[in-house]
Amino acid sequence: xxKTIAVIGGGTMxxxxxxTAALSGFAVTLQDISxxxxxxxxxxxxxxxNKNVEKxxxxxxxxxxxxxxxxxxxELQDAVQNADLVIEAALEVMEIKIDIFKKLDxxxxxHAILATNTSTMSPxxxxxxxxxxGQCVAMxxxxxxxxxxxxxxxxxLDTSDATVAAVKxxxxxxxxxxxxxxxxxxxxxxxxNCLIGNEAMNMLMEGxxxxxxxxxALKLGLNHPMGPLELAxxxxxxxxxxxxxxxxxNLGEKYRPSPLLVKxxxxxxxxxxxxxxxxxxxxxxxx
Length: 287
Hints:
Oligomer: single chain
CATH architecture of the largest domain: 3-Layer(aba) Sandwich
Protein name: 3-hydroxybutyryl-CoA dehydrogenase
Family: Belongs to the 3-hydroxyacyl-CoA dehydrogenase family.
Helix content: 40-55%
Strand content: 5-15%
Shape: globular
Low-confidence stretches: none
CATH superfamily of the largest domain: NAD(P)-binding Rossmann-like Domain
CATH topology of the largest domain: Rossmann fold
InterPro entries: 3-OHacyl-CoA_DH, 3-OHacyl-CoA_DH_NAD-bd, 3HC_DH_C, 6-PGluconate_DH-like_C_sf, 6PGD_dom2, NAD(P)-bd_dom_sf
Enzyme class: oxidoreductase
Largest sheet: 8 strands, mixed
Keywords: NAD, Oxidoreductase
């Protein structure tokens, strides 16, 4: 049974996973190689707890218990040495993930499950860097983690039934629903999301409609909760470009990144995190 979770990476996804796991009663250690990033993650999580207590979504007792269950560190070995489950939430770069998994295999207990929070990449290839491929799996969380109800559970070639069952149980305790996916580039949601978002970018580039009207059309006409260009800004245009390039390499021409996406990333327009993407954002990340 999973009681202790280590989250590797203090960025948007890592801190969201750590918040949700701690609120769900798990003992959580969040690790980032940057002390500044670890401190920013700590501040973000504390502020999110405070906001949700003020709004009545979380009881003050739950906040105190969850914060007491959270540890922040820059030391990978310290973070994972007692973990039952490790969730890696690093950049979508295969070389980085493989390097992390080699270290996790060395430092984590023999029984620990090693999960990658990837939206497109092969858990089989990542697991091959370890001596425990049966205990490796992909858990694809969605942003913002504390609100989104789905986790895609992706089997690698050697992922065991016991590993899948364990991460489904963890997901359920976090209040999430799961879909089980057999590994294929992009899984289910990312293949669809990237196609829709890429087409929206091409339409904007072609002058079909404004960013606002493209997003409005999909929200009101197709009942999407968020427009594809808004979503790309939220995810980060650099992250979206990495995903598109990976899918293009593996699935072919229909996933060729929009020239507009490439141009925006070259210009440093990365979405909300840079203050400008398809929209402009103020200091409070509001359009």
